[in-house]
Design brief:
about 350 residues, six-stranded parallel beta sheet, single chain, about 40% helix
């Protein structure tokens, strides 16, 4: 049996398909599983042990997609599952020629599938992993379970070595407790203010001399990370300021390795948060227009995760196209003290768990 999986675009959404990938491999252990992703998300699944083949599909236009379609048809897939539902993904699903094609019941495109699953347009308080799992109905699959089928991204050994070298060069020692703070997000609706990140970074460093804060960002937001570092250091003495560390950009594979070295990860609801969720590291997640019910870390419940959000806003959640109040209040009104408190709780719980394990 040959199974084709398609999930284009966002990093977090690709991470959210990995439980289904694992479940499909468990259900059909002899099947050949192929996954189509776009280049920026390819590192997430390149080393996934449940996949036999990863096809990277750059957005090179119609001619390139028709070539890809011929390749897919030649592979003679028995089943194609479109986890995305966008125009390009649905077209590739149809062009694959698979006799069974699963996708969402979407206007103007549902005819491309042989089996369709309803996808309500309203932003439901239901996790994205569960929403995507709906596509597996009829395949005799088990229920989605965080412990049995968590999100996955495997650590690349070469990336881990590169990260260790960079940390040493930045003055980080083996006994230091690292707090990774990711300061960028996929769009302005999910970005916590720079001054808030700076206040958080400075406070965490000031409270424990063993801590080092590593500030990370996406490649397009290096300036934001630099400003957070500069403003955090300005709040601290020169001796403490050096513990807010600048290490440059990290690739997705390097970020995954860095998270394994950390005592805590803090970030908004974006791809790097969901990369962090593939580890056991404690997480503090900042939610603005989105809901924890939809995108909280999907992993074993024993792993620590704190969600920080402003509740009871009538405009939340939103479709992230227009901020109705105009002031992004779901994030701008989120005070640093609340995030600091959540970080300290997560670190304290992790320390207590470690002590009980060794007792």
């Amino acid at each position: 049996m040959r199974i084709l999986l398609i999930r284009l675009r966002e990093i977090g959404d690709v991470v959210f398909t990995t439980p289904a990938v694992h479940a499909l491999h468990s259900r059909f252990p002899d099947a050949h599983l192929t996954y189509i992703v776009e280049p920026h998300a390819a590192p997430l699944v390149a080393a996934n042990p449940h996949l036999d083949e990863v096809i990277v599909a750059p957005r090179n236009g119609v001619i390139a997609d028709l070539r890809l379609a011929r390749r897919l048809r030649a592979s003679r897939f028995d089943l194609a599952i479109d986890f995305h539902g966008g125009p390009r993904a649905s077209l590739l699903t149809w062009l694959s020629g698979a006799p069974v094609r699963l996708g969402y019941d979407i206007a103007w495109r549902s005819w491309m599938y042989t089996r369709r699953v309803a996808r309500p347009r309203a932003l439901r308080p239901r996790h994205s992993v569960e929403n995507q799992w709906d596509l597996l109905a009829g395949l005799e699959m088990p229920a989605p379970d965080r412990s049995t089928f968590p999100v996955e991204m495997h650590v690349d050994a070469d990336a881990a070595r590169r990260v260790e070298v960079r940390l040493r060069e930045a003055g980080v020692e083996a006994g230091d407790r690292l707090v990774v703070i990711h300061v960028s997000a996929g769009n302005p609706f999910r970005r916590w203010p720079i001054d808030s990140f700076a206040a958080l970074s400075a406070a965490l460093v000031a409270r424990d001399s063993r801590r080092r804060v590593i500030v990370t960002s996406g490649p397009s937001e290096r300036d934001a990370a630099a400003r957070v570092i500069d403003r955090a250091r300005a709040r601290l003495s020169s001796g403490d300021g050096v513990r807010v560390v600048a290490c440059g950009d990290f690739s997705l594979t390097e970020l995954r390795a860095l998270v394994d070295r950390a005592a805590l990860f803090i970030g908004g609801d974006s791809g790097p948060l969901h990369v962090a969720a593939t580890s056991a590291v404690p997480i503090v997640a900042l939610y603005g227009p989105t809901l924890p019910a939809r995108s909280a870390p999907w992993r074993e419940p024993r792993f620590i995760a704190e969600a920080v959000e402003i509740r009871d806003l009538p405009c939340r959640p939103c479709d992230q196209r227009v901020c109705a109040p105009g002031d992004f209040r779901c994030l701008t009104s989120l005070e640093p003290e609340r995030v600091i408190d959540a970080a300290e709780r997560a670190l304290a719980r992790a320390a207590a768990d470690k002590m009980s394990t060794h007792a």
